[in-house]
Amino acid sequence: MLKYTAIPILCLTLFWSCNQNPKVSSNETNPKLVVGIVVDQMRYDYLTRFYNKYGEGGFKRMMREGYNCKNNHFNYIPTKTGPGHASIYTGTTPKYHGIIGNDWYDKILKETVYCVGDTSIRSVGTNASSGQMSPHRLKTTTFADENRLFTQGKGKTIGISLKDRGAVLPAGHTANAAYWFHGGEEGIWISSTHYMDELPNWVKLFNAEHSVTKYLTEWNTFHDISTYTESGLDLNAYERGFNGKDSATFPYPLDKLKDANGGFDILKTTAYGNNLVTDFALAALTGEDLGQDAVTDILAVSYSSTDYVGHNFGVNSKEIEDTYIRLDKDLERLLKGLDDYVGKNNYTLFLTADHAAVNVPAYLQSVKIPAGYLNHAQTRRRFESFMEQTFNSAELIENISNDQIFLNRRLVHTMGLKLEEVQERIVNELINYPHVYQVYSATTMSTSEFTIGIEALLQKGFNQKRSGDILIVPDPAFISYPKTGSTHGSGFNYDTHVPLLFFGKGIMQGSTHIKTEITDIAPTMSALLGISFPNAAIGQPLDFVLE
Ligand SMILES: [Zn+2]
User: Is there a catalytic annotation at residue 81?
Assistant: First the structure.
């Protein structure tokens, strides 16, 4: 009986507190536009390392006027682009949204699939297959999807990135459009029939003007290179560079190097790729009438050149420093465009990254930090002979990819073996291999609960339906990559620690060192808008960020 009498009081209390709570949003107080900015491969320390090189109107303006979450991390493995963009916008991890890599081995199709690849649809804007992309492998909704549902489809969603997956996954299932860059000989923005049958006029016009050609010029440093004191020597042993140029040193004559480096695709690996994205994002603002009425629109912009440059030249390069100095100018230009078109206090923006990156291991070795490279071919041979000796069959190995082993489960069954026992024998074998830090089986991932550390991150990245039978964690700073350039994918801080800045309408001014997680972003945006959380979100709204 006590239980029943308590209910009306509870209801009244909730009703009262809801009415008194200024954080409950309504359409009149919501921002007209939410802008999500993802900077591909941006480490948190790029905010601090290059701070003195930034102007007042870009990163610094967001830090000064907005809220800076300085201890923001990815909370799963693998820290890669597809999973990163999906997690930011869905508020959940690969365990639930299903994007377990950029590519992965599909156990049912028995082939490797690409996270946004979709052969059931057609390219729009090109005859090439690069437009055959959709979010069909993303199992859950993004906050942009929830905004579409909440607004009866009146709030628009537009996704933009050089990379297809950087545009498609944030925009979600219900987006009006996602646009990505098709380089090669065309140098144009394209889409797919998931969104439209033909490009809108403003995109056709943008492509026809071919303003992309103006970036095929010389790439030299924005400031005198001697002032770039926050990075290593321009000429060093840890950079790959471009085909057709002997050294990875400034300046780069892009017009001359174009043909040997994929035509217009060369722009992706220069600071100018971000200029191109900004040009297109500003064109989208007016082309799509974003933020022009009381119904909130969502613009998802992802800057990918930072990742391409990082992969080619590494975390400590002059090329990375120049790319961030120039990106800062792009952000200033984008904010100015938003101020002018949407109005200064009419939009809310967040900026984060889809993952960070490790310093080039060869460089780390040179300064005595434990680091190195994995020899997959050697490991595979040793593992195959173990399987031969132990189970009389290397055929039990169906696929090895993304630090996971997929067993041929049918063969395990027909050979009369117990899956759990096979997995356990493999775990006990692999943990003895050089540069293997941890090994877990799918059974352990499904039956244990890890709450902290690398194991917990591995578990949040483990999808029961899509992931492999064995999960391997390499040693810190050991990567499977050439000895030039940086990469990412681990659960260590160099890969998980990324910026998180909030700015604009409804956002407090301040900063924190309290740990926040990448999955908190979507619930925070949902709370700001007063809409449902993405359907599998596990993060928490960051209350201290919201006014
Ligand atoms: Zn990358």
Answer: yes
218 CB contacts (<8 Å, ≥6 apart)? 251, 252, 253, 254, 255
Residue 4 pLDDT = 38
Closest by CA position to 461, among listed 37, 143, 78: 78
pLDDT class of 210 with cuts at 50, 70, 90:
confident
Catalytic residue among 13, 48, 79, 81: 81
- Beta strands in 296-338, from DSSP E residues, in sequence order: 297-303
**How high is the pLDDT of residue 362?**
96
Question: Of 340, 277, 359, 339, which is closest to residue 46 (Cα–Cα)?
Answer: 359
* Residue 282 burial (CB count, 10 A): 18
Q: Which of 439, 443, 478, 475 is nearest to 455 (CA)?
A: 439
Nearest to 330 by CA among 271, 373, 288, 415: 271
The mean pLDDT value for 216-245 works out to 97
CA angle 276, 137, 83 (to 5 degrees): 60
Residue among 4, 1, 31 nearest 506 (CA): 31
Cα distances from 338 to residues 62, 63, 131, 134, 284, in angstroms, run: 13, 17, 28, 28, 11
**Whole-number Cα distances in Å, 80 to 41, 69, 75, 469, 519:** 9, 21, 12, 20, 15
- Of 516, 28, 116, 49, whose CA–CA distance to 324 is shortest? 49
Residue 195 Cα, ligand 1 centroid: separation in angstroms?
26
Q: Assess whether pLDDT exceeds 50 at residue 231.
A: yes
Does an H or E element contain 543, and which?
none
269 CA to centre of ligand 1 in angstroms = 11
Between the CA of 123 and the centroid of ligand 1 the distance, in Å, is: 24
Confidence (pTM) = 0.94
Residue 140 DSSP class: S
363 torsion bin: left (phi>0), alpha (psi -120 to 50), beta (else): alpha
Q: What pLDDT is recorded for position 271?
A: 96
The predicted structure's pLDDT at residue 29:
86
- Name the residue type at position 184: G
CA of 156 from ligand 1 middle (Å) equals: 29
How many angstroms does the Cα of residue 429 sit away from the middle of ligand 1?
31
> What would the pLDDT profile of 69-117 be if each residue is shown by its tens digit?
999 999 999 999 999 999 999 999 999 999 999 999 999 999 999 999 9
Q: Which of 364, 361, 201, 357 is nearest to 289 (CA)?
A: 201
| Mean of per-residue pLDDT scores for the chain | 94
Tokens describing residue 187: 């140098």
Instruction: Please give the helix or strand (H or E) that residue 530 lies within, else none.
Output: none
Q: What pLDDT is recorded for position 115?
A: 98
As given in the structure block, the two tokens for residue 28 are: 């009149």
Q: 281: helix, coil or strand?
A: helix
Going by C-alpha positions, the residue among 530, 529, 528, 534 that lies closest to residue 542 is 528
The residues pairing with 37 across neighbouring beta strands, listed in sequence order, are 301, 351
Mean pLDDT over 392-408 rounds to: 97
Residue 10 pLDDT grade (very low, low, confident, very high; cuts 50, 70, 90): very low
